[in-house]
Design goal:
about 325 residues, mainly alpha
Length: about 325
């Protein structure tokens, strides 16, 4: 067997691996991977592999021990820690610090890792409709405060856009005025995976957007920039001043959070998120059409299996269907 070119200790190899994670992944991911590797080293120590052991002595058995250890954790933690350990083995193989049989490693993971149960998307459809009704009503008696008026019109158009287009929150926040074809009622966006896609707008969402942009005309006109280059949804706070600055994804989430709290009360806070409106969109398409392929294309799901998660009926609908069939006998 060929001797690895370098022979660092286990601890040194882990440090090197985590450094690459820190450079390529988010701070939260790097922290989670650090926790995972700490747990992995404790597992190895139980099998007489110490931190100072040359990492070249490590083989795929360590991954099998780790998978057995992870059974006491939640399935989500198990998946995360397994991914971290798998990445470590791939790092060792790539750096030629140990002779790793990657196909054997994959076999261990497939056979021993738990399969997570498929969770159906859950969201309170009636509550989302109450929120949309609420934001429609708040624009009836608008305040004389120009910023408050603009925020109300913006929030109404933003929530209706999320509900009726299926846009992800970051996609909606990134839209510019020039992205929308007002005659065709659609926009071309760069969506998930850097893929270009067409998004359709409903009549009510377009009407809300036009009301908002009409009220924003003075602000946009004073910007000194071409209207198509301006954000579709702008900030209306002291920090923005008189400039048409785009809202961030954080602001988009705050809009949802604030209007949910106002419409449904504090107890609903955190229960409905921007993605709940995407769930609402997909389910609305399925309920109206029954066409799974149509829903997949409109939601821009890469796989129809994702769309199928939405193709379920609520308990109330099942009860109604059951009684309509059997109570008529």
């Amino acid at each position: 067997m060929e001797t690895p070119k370098t022979d660092p200790s286990l601890a040194e190899a882990v440090q090197g691996y985590l450094k690459t994670v820190q450079e390529a992944r988010s701070e939260n991911t790097a922290r989670a991977y650090g926790n995972a590797m700490g747990a992995f080293m404790r597992v190895l120590k139980e099998h007489w592999i110490e931190a100072e052991t040359p990492v070249s002595q490590l083989n795929e058995d360590g991954a099998a021990w780790m998978l057995s250890y992870l059974k006491v954790y939640s399935s989500s933690t198990e998946r995360l820690y397994t991914q971290a350990v798998k990445g470590f083995y791939q790092y060792l193989a790539g750096e030629k610090q140990a002779e790793i049989n990657l196909p054997r490693l994959d076999l261990f993971i497939r056979k021993r890792a738990r399969r997570s149960g498929q969770r159906l998307p859950q969201f309170p459809r009636e509550d989302i409709e109450r929120i949309l009704e609420f934001v429609n009503n708040i624009t009836i008696n608008l305040s004389d405060n120009s910023d408050e008026r603009l925020r109300a019109l913006r929030d109404r158009s933003f929530l209706l856009t999320l509900a009726d287009t299926g846009l992800r929150v970051h996609e909606a926040c990134s839209l510019h005025r020039g992205d929308v074809d007002w005659n065709e009622g659609r926009a071309i966006i760069i969506g998930k995976g850097d893929k270009q896609a067409i998004v359709r707008f409903s009549t009510r969402s377009l009407r809300a957007l036009k009301d908002y942009l009409s009220a924003r005309a003075a602000l946009d006109g004073a910007s000194g920039r071409p209207l198509p280059s301006l954000p579709l949804f702008a900030r209306h706070d002291k920090g923005a001043g008189k400039k048409a600055k785009p809202i961030t994804t954080t602001t988009g989430r705050n809009i949802v959070s604030e209007r949910v709290r106002q419409a449904l009360g504090n107890e609903a806070s955190g229960r409905i998120t921007p993605h709940s409106f995407r769930h609402y969109f997909v389910t609305t398409v399925l309920r109206a059409s029954g066409n799974l392929k149509l829903a997949q294309e409109l939601a821009r799901h890469a796989s129809i299996q994702v769309t199928q998660r939405y193709a379920h009926l609520s308990d109330d609908e099942l009860d109604k269907g059951y009684h309509e069939i059997f109570e008529k006998k």
